[in-house]
Prior knowledge:
The structure holds two protein chains of two kinds.
Chain A: E1 3-7, E2 17-23, E3 29-36, H1 54-61, H2 66-81, H3 87-112, H4 114-119, H5 130-136, H6 138-159, E4 168-169, E5 172-173, H7 179-209, E6 223-228, E7 240-244, E8 250-255, H8 260-263, E9 264-269, E10 272-279, H9 283-286, E11 289-290, H10 293-299, H11 306-316, H12 331-350, E12 370-377, E13 380-388, E14 394-400, H13 402-405, H14 407-421, H15 429-440, E15 458-464, E16 469-475
Parallel strand pairs in A: 6-11
Antiparallel strand pairs in A: 1-2, 1-15, 2-3, 4-5, 6-7, 7-8, 9-10, 12-13, 13-14, 15-16
Helix pairs in contact in A: 1-2, 3-6, 3-12, 5-6, 6-7, 7-12, 11-12, 14-15
Chain B: E1 3-8, E2 11-16, H1 21-27, E3 51-54, E4 61-62, E5 73-75, H2 79-95, H3 110-117, E6 134-135, E7 141-144, H4 153-162, E8 167-170, E9 177-180, H5 197-201, E10 207-209, H6 223-233
Parallel strand pairs in B: 1-5
Antiparallel strand pairs in B: 1-2, 3-4, 3-5, 6-7, 7-10, 8-9
Amino acid sequence: MSKTVTIEPVTRIEGHAKITIQLDDNGKVADSRFHVTEFRGFEKFCVGRSFWEMPGITARICGICPVSHLLASSKAGDMILGVRTPAPAVALRRLMNYGQLVQSHALSFFLLSGPDLILGMDADPSQRNIAGLIAADPDLARAGIGLRAFGQKLIRSLGDRSVHPSWAVPGGVRKSLPTEQRDELLKQLPAMYATVDNALDLMKDILDRFSAEIDAYGEFPSLFMGLVAADGGLEHYDGKLRVIDSDGKVLEDSAAPESYQQLIAEAEQNWSYLKFPYYKPLGPEAGMYRVGPLARLNVCDFAGTPKADRELRQFRHYGGQGKPVTGSFYYHYARLIEILFSLERIEELLADEILIDHHIRSQAGVNQNVGIGVSEAPRGTLFHHYRVDDNGILEAVNLIIATGQNNLAMNKTVKQLAERFISGSKLDQGLLNRVEHGIRVYDPCLSCSTHEAGRMPMQIKLISAKGELLDEIERS
Amino acid sequence: MPVITLTINDELVSARSGQSILEACRDHDIQLPTLCYLDGLSARGGCRLCLVDVAGSPRLLPACTTEALENMVVTTHNEKIDRYRRMILELTFAERNHTCAVCVSNENCELQSLAAELGMDHVRYDYLNPELNLDTSHERYGVDHNRCLLCLRCVRVCDEVEGAHTWDVMGRGVESRVITDLNRPWGDSESCTDCGKCVEVCPTGALFDKGSSVAEMKKEASFLRRILDGREKRQWQR
Ligand code: SF4
Ligand code: SF4
Ligand code: FES
């Protein structure tokens, strides 16, 4: 007789994620499923609109990383126009993308995962939250909030709003960075570096403290995919796709992002709205790949900025000679390194005279009927693929989001955690907390994961093969 | 020109004979919401937002098409009129598709600001959500029927001011749509002079400059008064 454990959120308008863990006759974990019921019909209802509106539309609809959609969509639009996007506009877009990386990673590390990491997985639930974190380490919490605010301020300086900006457009951007705001941002940088330095020290403590269970949070071989710069450096806006395997062997190098369909196929399952992309040449099983901070640090040859490169060398020790880091718990560490890298890049860009050049937008009509825009969102590689008619009306839209690409890995992580922490046919808070954290390491763009640590709405059901409810645990 | 006297909101005001109630109100800085009316175009009385109460009339009357008469007693605002106006706006929103957040005219839209001004904060009617298309075949402009409220400013400005008469209306009731050159794609129109007057006077995001992104369209309908004064009075002022 086999049993099924289901973890699902109580009904709320945001956040619809549900986890099922299948036990076999011996009470061992046979399979696990992370059900996602978001992302319904999104691509369909853009059809019939114009591609000029898409940056604004996609930034609005996917409210969790609007900047990333804005940029990928604008890049797809650039391709449809078929003209060169002015270099100052590209620099400004990169700048906004770094702002987004800083704010999103800071949110994930300090506010969403911080309470788990700093107070521990088994801390009193009434304390294991942002208030508890502030009580335990007010300086850290405040600095984390400040770091996030810095990223948001950068985004706002460019796009007028930190959420849902419609600033990047096909052909360029709408507005430049006012010099007063540039100077203000530059002034804040030293404090931001200090925050990341402290967080990196803390991260090493965390790795020590969690050493006994790190390998339960998604330690397994998989492929990794991400953009790399022409010189092999860490890249978030342009560049070529690289895919490596868990031995560090390069399977794809310098693949043009526009040819993504040769690399990626998308499987569907009737129990999840989120698709399951995989590396096509290896098939749905062996083709499982991870994207995001961990993947990006694994695929690049080097970071390309002094501080981040120093940190990257330390990070690579966790992988072993020439091999990538394969534990998903290290996503946290990778996020901090990317914040550091972004700050260094922001500093470079803010000092660059190119930002004051006034030509920031190229005008053109439809010169190509297909547009593919790829960029690195905080959570991983994001693809926007449009087909338009000669008047720019969308005939087909395909989006591949980071969270989808990590879907197979998230499922596998939940399974690993269940294998380690499920005891008998009883469910406990310890498992619930760890499964929650196992999902959080990927920082998925699902609304359930926007709740702070310890607050992810979840419900666990333990059901036998006959459909009997054996145990139930929930959190609202 | 003969002058008449009437009462608006308990105040005695004078007006020129032949003026509409709306014109009389505006001359005396009495605010009235309007959508289809535009200074410089013929009045149409289509949107009904300018409804006012005229003593002795069993129905509310549109101020833009009702002549101001000697001794008339007019009320422009009261609880009932405000309720009617909000209802009209709600019906307008429900009739097509107004997703302001992703509209080219967001934050620069007459319909949207009227809704804010009149305190319309929700729509009590079912949205019809008809399937309407976007025509971006014109080299410079686009029309999104989802945002059109059939105010017919475009039709009138094209006919009365530009003299091209490219725009017309097709169909009846909720089926109505503005069309170019007897329902050909705008880009195929032979009568359109590409002047863009229709785009400038359109109160919503229905007509826009092609290539506009979300919230990027800003229109200025006051150009109309300027060119008409130039044409009619040989006066040009900036
Ligand atoms: S036309 Fe105006 S009311 Fe309609 S969606 Fe656009 S901004 Fe909103
Ligand atoms: S297109 Fe604009 S101006 Fe023409 S009827 Fe529709 S809303 Fe009015
Ligand atoms: S303004 Fe009078 S009816 Fe439209």
